[in-house]
């Protein structure tokens, strides 16, 4: 039996590649859980990218199986589809489930997945933070990724690279939630403000108006990464990492 109030909360889980690998071993490994979906991994040239693809998609299925059925063994039986709103392909694009809104993101080292009520738009993103990449963001980042107002705000911050990355993660999450992805210029999507930075520090929702009216919050993840969640409605957020990979209970993050 799954979580009774799963249509009134948002759940997420963050995990390393090793944690997902160990959990998946109990059910035959990622290839067994993903079935034909696993073939997409061959599109990547680098082994780390193939493993990250398999790990992130496996993590999403494990979380969804827990929320819907309370049984990770159901992960391989879940119906998850994709459709690209740009080209119409069903091989990639925003993931969809019949019963819940879902989203996932990955780096080579860490994955995140989110599950929410079917009625809402949902997007999640995770990025490597300055602690993982001390060289900082790429040259020209501000012009590509930030609005003029955001550029002025970032230049006043002591830890400017971290602020740049929380902005990027938020924009990715918002564009995933809206279904447009990076077809929309990130520099045209405002997410940073004094109010938003205060909400980030306090772990609270903040409202943004473009690409549409969404609620945004940054999630607590290991210091090597930053992560953001976007939703069309602000709801209680519950982290289930300990339930899936540890021995504790889910941690409720206040609205």
Overall radius of gyration: 17 Å
Distinct helical segment count: 8
Q: How would you spell out the order of helices and strands?
A: EHHHEEEEEHHHHEEEEHE
Overall pLDDT level: 90
Strand content: 15-25%
Fraction of residues in helix:
25-40%
First-last Cα distance = 26 Å
- Total strand count, please? 11
What is the structural class? Answer: alpha+beta
Sheet with the most strands: spatial strand order? 4-5-1-10-11
Report the biggest beta sheet as strand number plus sense, adding barrel if it closes.
5 strands, mixed
Regions with little confidence, pLDDT below 50 for 5+ residues: none
Provide the fold topology.
Blueprint: E1 10-16, H1 17-25, H2 30-34, H3 47-69, E2 81-83, E3 94-96, E4 100-106, E5 110-117, E6 122-128, H4 141-145, H5 148-155, H6 160-178, H7 194-202, E7 206-208, E8 214-218, E9 225-231, E10 237-239, H8 241-245, E11 251-253
Parallel strand pairs: 1-10
Antiparallel strand pairs: 1-5, 2-3, 4-5, 6-9, 7-8, 8-9, 10-11
Helix pairs in contact: 1-3
